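#struct-pred
JK: can someone run the complex with magnesium ion? inputs below
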Amino acid sequence: MPGATVLLRADFNVPVSSGEVADDTRIRRTLPTIRRLVRAGARVAVLSHLGRPRGEPDPGLTLAPVARRLSELLGRPRDAVRFVRHASGEPAAAAVARLAVGEVLLLENTRFLPGEAANARSLAREWASWADHFVTEAFGTAHRAHASTDALPRAVRDKGGEAVAGELVEREIACLGRALDEPARPFVAVLGGAKISDKIELVEALLGRADVLLAGGAMANVFLRALGLETGTSLVEDGAVDVARRLLDMAGPRLSLPVDCVVAGRVEPGAETRVAPRTEVGAGEAIVDIGPTTAELYGRRIAEAGTVVWNGPMGVFEMDGFGAGTTKVGLAAASAAARGATAIVGGGDSAAAAKFAGVADRVTHVSTGGGAALEFLACKEMPGLAALSDRSPSAEVAR
Ligand code: ADP
Ligand code: MG
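RT: done, structure tokens with the ligand placed:
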């Protein structure tokens, strides 16, 4: 397809400080697909959001610094990736029309436009009118039905173009999809983190597929409360206790709860802690981590698994002294992977927890998707994937 114009929906939602990109991981991860399109002779126009502007321009959330960094990473002079201060309208259309073969252009933050979050078909048709094909590398936004993720790929297909997943998104789909569809057994799901109400569908979906569910973190606190145990001043989502009771009934013996906990009088870095059986948490104490016996038990189950899906840290690992359970679970997932098991980490804070445990490079896959990964694992339909062409021949578009 030399000469074709390709609209690439990237996820360049990166931290920017003093006008410079502070962490370019997400930009780097999109380079293989951009390079492939450039080599194939495409004219590449890139769309992305950054932050949460409310449908109007916000100078603090411009993508201009991203365009500079992208140029550097592609090894071109600093302004070789052209940046257009508009994401729609005449100036944007003209800039795309002027693209030469193999050139790359970045448009301004899509969320500056009210039509983006509204999934406006008019905006999508405008974008589609510039392009022959659509490629998405924005897995982390694929759970949102926005104009650039949903209406746009549909509009491109309506005019006869292809709408396909890039390499990154294909890898996400392949890794997460395989774990759900044909898991090597035993399939062990590890669930921790803070908010059970956000994760009810995830827990239900995993209950339908996994052989064992190991609960930790504040997620486990809700179950302990549902069993009528004292949880002291621990973070417990009150509204979720009834749901937790129902999930306990559904899960039966497949759901494991901590048998012991690390508790602290104050949830502060370095606070004094003690280990308590789960039946002996004091009224003035908070559960900040799973206890060592639990960590040992969980570690053994995980290390022997054929498939591990891990979402949610086992404790307040960000604070000094509360991270041992999270580290133990991470190391067990890494040793399962070393044995040939599939070990997948999904979730924003979970990715940070895998780094904290030193295992981000030793598990099979750390999803870049954050909340989107959780929705995928909960088997919810993802608008940004459902909108793509039936087959996903990204290779064909880039050929
Ligand atoms: P993810 O982003 O991976 O889905 P969550 O956002 O659900 O994960 O949860 C991450 C947070 O859960 C972390 O910031 C961690 O401090 C917190 N957490 C884990 N265990 C506890 C606990 N026992 N008490 C309070 N917070 C906890
Ligand atoms: Mg989180």
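RT: quick notes.
Residues 348-349 surround magnesium ion (ligand 2) (CB under 6 Å).
Residues 25-39 form the longest helix (15 residues).
JK: thanks, will look after standup
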